[in-house]
Structures are given as structure tokens and as C-alpha cells.
Amino acid sequence: MRKLFAAVLALALLLCLVSCGDASSGAAEGGAAASAVPSAAPAEPAKTYRVAMICDSYISDGGWGAACYNAMLDAAAANGWEAACSDAIEAPDYYDAIVSYCSQGYDLIYAPGNQYTDAVLQAAAEYPDTAFALLNGSADTPEKAVNSNVTSLLPNARQIGWIAGAMAGLMTQTGAVAFIGGMELATTREKYEGYKEAAAFVAGKAGREAAALDIVYSNSFSDSEKGVALAKELIAQGADVFFGDASAVDSGARQAIDEANQAADSIKIYDIAQPSDSLGQNPCIITSQVTDNASLVGLSMRAVEEGSFGGEVIYGTLQNGVLSAGRISELVPADVQAAYQEYIAQMIADTFLK
Q: pLDDT value at position 67?
């Protein structure tokens, strides 16, 4: 009887072990035990940042508008951002154009000119999570932004004027050089003053005179026909070297200069372009003042990504490479080219005019 009880007990234990083994195996394959190992959460897609530019001139103007637009595209490509633009915007519509991008969730609004300041500050107050980069914005503009979301990108306007003025002083034969401004902006006036003093200084070193005619304003950045008319008036006053800060208006001025040269069957009236290297665009262009706006926009983009954007001024100078002189035309004699490069070196070394 005891042997029979022991046998039954052994059989019961064996059946229990087999049953537990099967349960453990099932759990490991897909039961409760498997769920104890946490599965990895799906990775969130990387954020795609977006920048938008508004511009009161055309991005096809071959001048300021085109240069600023291309700078944005270059910076966007380098940093993996998407870019959009609205051009030929009239002054009363600046704010609405900016807000249209803010409402779409764009991360950075790029406004290439001091004339957009009021519209930028108004929009920045209403959209605290949007960053605003104002090219040629005043040094005190960022501190006026209530949400600290505005940065001024400020190329050194006096140095810009020097770069153009030194070439004007070396190349003028009449002793009269001209400057066309778009709007009466502080940065435009500063460029004119630098142009004026550099031209006079350089010419004086060569024993000649170079006087800048009074600055004229087109009160527009897009009216190329106004540029034609202003250039004709200045040519009539004896101007033989031009520099401008008026975007498409500058393109119109070059048209008038080229026509005057064609009529004389000789290129004796010259233009200095900005802010990109435009040599070859018009026969009259002898060199360019170049501003690497792409580097300034790129710095803004990286600050947005890092969460450190706003409340500062990012300066661009000859010393940090943002400003430079472009290629020089063969119309400029070799000895003049050499003298010009020496003056540029002095500007970089901060010994120019001293």
C-alpha cells in the first residue's frame, strides 16, 4: 500500500514539473514574461527648421534683393533649413508679410534692412517664440524687443563706404564721385560718409582731388527707372564713379551709365557694386564691395537651434571676414589695383586714414 502511495506521489510531482516547465516556456515566447522587457519607444523625427525673408525689392534685381536672398538660401542649405521668401513688398505691408510667416510657425524671420525695424518689433512682441534677424538693424534695436527675440546683423557701414570710396578716389578723372541712396537710413548715411572720406583721402595721397557729390535718395528700392534718372543727373554734374545703396535703383543707374559709355564709345564712367561680387554683370562695374550675409544669417540659425538667439548685435567687419573687396576689372590699371589692395590691407590692420 505504501509502495502504491509513493508511486502516485512521484507521478503527481512529475506532472507538476512538466506543467510548470511548459508554462515558463510559453511565457518566455510571448506571454507575461516577455512583456516584462520594455520595448524601445519610436524615435521622434528630427525637427526641420524654417526661415522666411521679406524684401521690398525684387530678388531678381541683380543687386541688394538678389544678394540677400541668395545669402539666405546659402545659409539654409549649409544648416539644413527650409527657406521661403516674399519680395516686392510695399512699406505698408511689411508687418502683414512678416505675420503671415509667423502664423505658419516659421522659426526665423530674416528682414534685410533697417527700414523693417518697426514692423519687426511689432511682430516680435506678438510672436515671442519666433526669432527675428534684422540685417542692418540699429545697435539698440535688440534691447527694444520686449521678448528678447530680435537680433541685429550689423555690417560695419563705415567700412563698406571705405571699400568703395578707396576705389572711387583712385579711378576718378573728373574729381567728382556719386552716391545714390534708397531711403534716408542711418546705415545708408554712414556708408556715404565712409565713401566720401575714403575717396578724398586716397585721391589726396596721389596729389589729386575727389569730392563726393551730395547724396541723392530715390525713396525706393525697387524703382529702377528712378535710378536711370538720378544717374543721368549726376553724370551731367561730372560724376564718373558711382556707388549706391538702393538695390534695384542701383541697377537702373548702371543702365544709364552703360548707355552713356556706349554713346561715348568708351568706358569712362564706372560703378562699384554691393553687396555681392557683381563683376561682369554690367560693363561699367569695376569692382564690388562684398558682404558675406550668409555667414551672419548662418550664425542666427545656429543660435535658434541652440536656444540662445536674441538680444544681441552680430557685427560684420573687414577684420572678421564678413566684409571684403570683390574681383577687380581689367579696366583698372595694374598699378591702381596694387594701390587699392594696399589700402584694403590698411583697413584690415586698422591703419587706414591714420
A: 92
**For the chain, how many residues are written?**
354
Strand partners, 51: 83, 108
What residue spans in the chain does CATH classification 3.40.50.2300 cover? Answer: 50-156+294-316, 158-290+324-348
Task: State pLDDT tens for residues 5-61.
Answer: 334 334 343 333 333 344 333 333 333 444 445 555 566 678 999 999 999 999 998
What does the block give as the cell for 343? 589700402
Summarised one tens digit per residue, pLDDT across range 24-33 is: 333 333 334 4
Give the cell for residue 333: 590699371
Q: Which CATH number fits domain 158-290+324-348: 3.40.50.2300, 3.90.380.10, 2.40.10.270, 3.40.50.1000?
A: 3.40.50.2300
Quick count: other Cβ atoms within 10 Å of Cβ 225? 14
The DSSP string of 275-306 is SS--TTSSTTEEEEEEE-HHHHHHHHHHHHHH
- Would you say the pTM of this structure is higher than 0.85? no
DSSP state of 42: P
Q: Which fold has domain 50-156+294-316?
A: Rossmann fold (3.40.50)
Instruction: Give strand ranges (E) for the chain.
Output: 50-54, 82-86, 108-111, 131-135, 150-155, 176-181, 211-212, 216-217, 241-245, 270-273, 285-291, 313-316, 323-325
Burial pattern 25-58, b for ≥16 Cβ within 10 A else e, equals: eeeeeeeeeeeeeeeeeeeeeeeebbbbbbbbbb
Place of cell 557694386: 273
